[in-house]
Please model this.
Amino acid sequence: MISKIIHIRGTVQGVGFRPFVFSTAKKYNITGWVRNSSAGVEILANGTPQEIKVFITEVKTNPPPLAKIDTFVESENYSNGYKDFKILQSQIIPGEFIPISPDVAICSECQKELFDPTNNRYRYPFINCTNCGPRLTIIKGIPYDRPNTTMAEFTLCDRCQAEYDNPLNRRFHAQPVACPDCGPQVWFESLTTGSEKREKGIQRARQFLRDGKIIAIKGLGGFHLACDALNQEAVSKLRHRKKRSDKPFATMVFDMETVKKYCLINNAEETIMGSYEHPIVILPTKKGMHVPKQVAPKMRTLGVMLAYTPLHLLILEPENDYPDLFVMTSGN
Model:
């Protein structure tokens, strides 16, 4: 048996790195531990020389998709009596700092659960997992652990805690994990209709958009001002309020099918648009597809992004006689 201490720096917190190391250690019969620290991720690995070799190779070459390893330093350690592999409490090292993952667009699995009536997170606007959801914008301190985020005030219910503790679950050590029973709730506020919570609030926001009104949507990193992009009067009013005479507005749609309804898009652009950042991609508009000139004055292109949070998906969800192209511009 041999023992190694491994120090990893880079974007390795908030990306599912500890659960990945945990499952990889189990796969190769490695004992020891992994923990976050303010300097990165630390691993103590015990095993046979061959087990340690394949374990280190896999951690180096096959990390989680959102991870980025900058340095990987291993050193010899005295063998010890660990009989299992654990995720330990994080350690703070004075003067050290590492990058935290940016926020990540909702993954396909969470999106499927969001619209599954049999799922306990059905239509829950803050659904997330190890592979998606808020990261940087909820951080209050490092290491990246729930007590150091804005989610600290939301105590996990038994079901969420069981998922968080289960190495085989997609939400194993997902710091923002929550559900309708224990997590934050959405509400809609209006001077004319008052305050409405949860699903009623979402439906009220949709009604405002359907009626050609402008609403503010709090996203991950701030507010969007939103309106029906095909409603010329609403877009003109938004331009007036923002004092933006001709700079093109960004738009948002529910899915790629809607992108292709309004714009021409190639495979590379489609890949970029569907990546975990869900960025704005500038695309040529289709001939004959009328979009009010107020959206992108003097342009034959449209800046389009896919809905990237569960809340945006619920507000943009397709329905008969409901808009399918929305101006989505910053609230600053």
